[in-house]
């Protein structure tokens, strides 16, 4: 097992000890059964070597756990883990930050006053959330977590309403800046070019009757200029 897997395994088996209420004189044997194959072989070899060297038997869970931790957790691991814990910052959702915070707290085996845990948690929250949480009243670390989740939900609802309002304003501005277009000049020119029934294309002309002489009843001249001197 790698260090992370071992710490998770250790947490689970210790919860089992509490649940089953295993007697203290049987805890070591019970935990030996819970070891995985490679760890079980290592444990049997450790007991054999200690017996050959004349050392005392391991009869308590605390002592057995120290040997297991020495095997699976490097010396530098705990220091690096605690450094990562102190630098933990919320990147996405509060729920994901809470899960990471509790996991680091478990792996580091950190035992501190609840006020310190609350301050550490608050320092890793996003400023937009932590600034609101600080103004509220809470008594425990769990109260602080619930409050941070509520603040995040309220901010998400407010953000959605603002986005919806800005979208509606944008549509309204577009409709205001683009009024309906008047009829184009080309359409009116085309309409005027359609000939009306009963009208000529060109200008109307006045037609006068031909000149007629009343003496000879001829055309193209009048009586004054008539060459026919007949009497009527």
TrEMBL record:
Location of region: Disordered: 177-201
Domain Retrotransposon gag stretches: 33-127
InterPro entries named among the record's database cross-references: Retrotrans_gag_dom
Name under which the protein is recorded: Retrotransposon gag domain-containing protein
């Amino acid at each position: 097992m790698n260090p992370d897997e071992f710490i998770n395994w250790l947490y689970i088996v210790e919860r089992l000890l509490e649940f089953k209420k295993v007697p203290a004189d049987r805890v070591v044997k019970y935990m030996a059964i819970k070891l995985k194959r490679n760890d079980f072989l290592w444990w049997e070899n450790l007991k054999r070597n200690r017996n050959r060297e004349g050392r005392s038997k391991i009869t308590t869970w605390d002592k057995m756990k120290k040997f297991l931790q020495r095997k699976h957790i490097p010396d530098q691991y705990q220091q690096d883990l605690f450094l990562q814990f102190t630098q933990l910052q919320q990147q996405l959702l509060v729920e994901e930050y809470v899960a990471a915070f509790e996991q680091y707290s478990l792996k580091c085996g950190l035992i501190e006053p609840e006020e310190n845990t609350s301050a550490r948690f608050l320092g890793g929250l996003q400023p937009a959330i932590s600034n609101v949480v600080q103004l509220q009243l809470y008594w425990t670390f769990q109260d602080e977590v619930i409050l941070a989740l509520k603040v995040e939900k309220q901010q998400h609802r407010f953000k959605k309403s603002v986005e919806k309002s800005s979208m509606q304003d944008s549509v309204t501005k577009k409709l205001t800046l683009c009024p309906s277009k008047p009829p184009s000049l080309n359409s009116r020119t085309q309409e005027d070019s359609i000939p009306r029934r009963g009208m000529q294309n060109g200008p109307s002309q006045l037609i006068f009757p031909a000149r007629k002489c009343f003496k000879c009843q001829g055309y193209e001249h009048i009586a004054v200029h008539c060459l026919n001197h007949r009497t009527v």
